[in-house]
TrEMBL record:
Transmembrane segments: 105-126
Keyword terms: Disulfide bond, EGF-like domain, Endocytosis, Glycoprotein, Lectin, Membrane, Proteoglycan, Receptor, Repeat, Signal, Transmembrane, Transmembrane helix
Assembly, per entry: Interacts with ITGAL, ITGAM and ITGB2. Interacts with thrombin/F2; this interaction switches the specificity of thrombin from a procoagulant to an anticoagulant and antifibrinolytic protease. Interacts with ANGP1 and ANGP2; these interactions significantly inhibit the generation of activated PC and TAFIa/CPB2 by the thrombin/thrombomodulin complex. Interacts with PF4; this interaction enhances generation of activated protein C. Interacts with HMGB1; this interaction inhibits HMGB1 inflammatory activity.
InterPro entries cross-referenced by the UniProt entry: C-type_lectin_domain (IPR051505), EGF (IPR000742), EGF-like_Ca-bd_dom (IPR001881), EGF_Ca-bd_CS (IPR018097), Growth_fac_rcpt_cys_sf (IPR009030), NOTCH1_EGF-like (IPR049883), Tme5_EGF-like (IPR015149)
The keyword Iron appears for this protein: no
The species this protein was found in: Champsocephalus gunnari
Listed GO biological process terms: endocytosis
Designated name of the protein: Thrombomodulin
Classification via Gene3D superfamilies: Laminin
Keyword Repeat set for record: yes
Main location: membrane
Pfam families: EGF_CA, EGF_Tme5
Stated role: Endothelial cell receptor that plays a critical role in regulating several physiological processes including hemostasis, coagulation, fibrinolysis, inflammation, and angiogenesis. Acts as a cofactor for thrombin activation of protein C/PROC on the surface of vascular endothelial cells leading to initiation of the activated protein C anticoagulant pathway. Also accelerates the activation of the plasma carboxypeptidase B2/CPB2, which catalyzes removal of C-terminal basic amino acids from its substrates including kinins or anaphylatoxins leading to fibrinolysis inhibition.
Amino acid sequence: MHCGQQKCTPICERGPDSGCFCPEGFVLSDQLCEDIDECVNECDQMCDNSFGSFVCSCKEGYKLKDHGKCVEAEGGESPVVIGVVKPATNNHTQQGAAAPAGGLVWIWITVIVALAVFIIVIRFYVVKRQKRREEHSIQQSTVPVDNVDC
């Protein structure tokens, strides 16, 4: 699931125990998924809230450490460090599947192609065997039979 705006329509399952789910970084509110403003609680100094995520950064002389905390930079370290901190998943959001949908499509295409090749090979084998039987039966019928009594 992806939402590139402040509010999106949730994905709802059908059935008796169905529920609605939002992308990571969004919360279900009044039948809509709304972007969580992670900047309220996540970053010490500077924060840029984006749809479904956020970026913490520190002022000059500080560096980013441990999920949005800014600490003083030491002598040889870079004075400004910017890092991305992902929001924690809560009960109102659902993470997407580990395998992308496109990957599953390619798996199905591969299975179907393999099955088609298997059917073609079996068909070829059966036709070849049938031709051999026909040739063998024709050869047996053309062999002359001696009916000589001894």
